[in-house]
Specification:
Mean pLDDT of chain B: 96
Low-confidence stretches of chain A: none
Number of helices of chain B: 4
Mean pLDDT of chain A: 94
Number of strands of chain B: 0
Number of helices of chain A: 5
Structural class of chain B: mainly alpha
Shape of chain A: flat
Largest sheet of chain A: none
Helix content of chain B: 55-70%
Helix content of chain A: over 70%
Oligomer: heterodimer
Number of strands of chain A: 0
Largest interface: A-B, 50 and 47 residues
Radius of gyration of chain A: 19 Å
Strand content of chain A: under 5%
Distance between the termini of chain A: 52 Å
Number of domains of chain A: 2
Distance between the termini of chain B: 36 Å
Radius of gyration of chain B: 16 Å
Largest sheet of chain B: none
Order of helices and strands of chain B: HHHH
Order of helices and strands of chain A: HHHHH
Chain lengths: 140, 110
């Protein structure tokens, strides 16, 4: 029986491109004053990857580039969604980024605390509990 | 021109989109302690993809598997989001087999 590696390669590409996007979008949105410029870069890189996918003779290369292209273009939208999360306080704001400093000034909901960086406790928590739990985790 | 990768990319987006749905529902009704089972199921699908001769079948199986593994690493954070009231919180969850053992493991968060 022949082994077909294309599924494994597609799985690895999908997994690592999601992971990379997940980390990059947060990092770039946190540190870059502009998000329109990196968003445009993501789209352009995505288009080039897609052209590469169209031009590759091998199915494996076409698959890898095709998946990578789509997730890169998706990352462009995620930059804007990430900013919305920061405004809502669902992702921490970075006071040394001028754009985030402005968000912190204009939106009461924004915070510098990462409320998600802890283990689940198994019950609904209120705002004070949430801050305490996040602070406790920070000290550990 | 090779359009295979383009369509695989589109399907990948759909499968990732479906991931948002099942991670939220899965965490709500089952709880984050199910993560090793989802990770194992994903790994199994990827393993099955190796034995599918048809490229489309192999790719679909692989991406579904990869998406299940990714989802398993999202469960813990989703549980915290629900506890914060960002998503509907459900107290009565179905506990997985060996929940006590799994509870002692460090759940992944990427």
């Amino acid at each position: 029986m022949n082994i077909n590696f294309i599924g494994l390669i597609a799985a690895l590409t999908a997994f690592f491109s999601i992971w990379m996007g997940h980390v990059l979008v947060r990092k770039i949105e946190r540190h870059s004053n502009s998000i329109k410029f990196p968003a445009a870069c993501f789209v352009i890189i995505g288009i080039f990857l897609q052209i590469g996918s169209f031009l590759s003779a091998s199915s494996i290369l076409s698959t890898t580039l095709g998946i990578f292209s789509m997730t890169t273009i998706w990352d462009s939208f995620e930059l804007f969604r990430q900013q919305k999360r920061v405004i809502k306080g669902r992702s921490p704001a970075n006071p040394s980024n001028p754009r985030h400093a402005q968000i912190l000034k204009q939106h009461q909901s924004a915070t510098t605390v990462d409320l998600l960086k802890r283990d689940p406790v198994g019950y609904l928590v209120n705002v004070d509990d949430a801050l305490n739990l996040a602070a406790k985790k920070g000290k550990l | 021109m090779n359009t295979f990768g383009f369509f695989v990319g589109l399907i990948t987006l759909l499968i990732i989109g479906f991931g948002f749905f099942w991670v939220i529902r899965g965490e709500k009704y089952l709880g984050y302690l199910w993560w090793p089972y989802f990770m194992a199921a994903g790994t199994l699908l990827v393993a099955i993809s190796l034995f599918l001769a048809n490229d489309w079948a192999s790719v679909l199986m692989g991406i579904l598997g990869g998406s299940l593994i990714w989802g398993s690493t999202e469960f813990k954070e989703q549980a915290v989001r629900a506890e914060l009231g960002w998503f509907p919180f459900n107290q009565k969850k179905i506990r997985p087999p060996f929940a006590d053992v799994i509870g002692k493991w460090k759940a992944p968060r990427l």
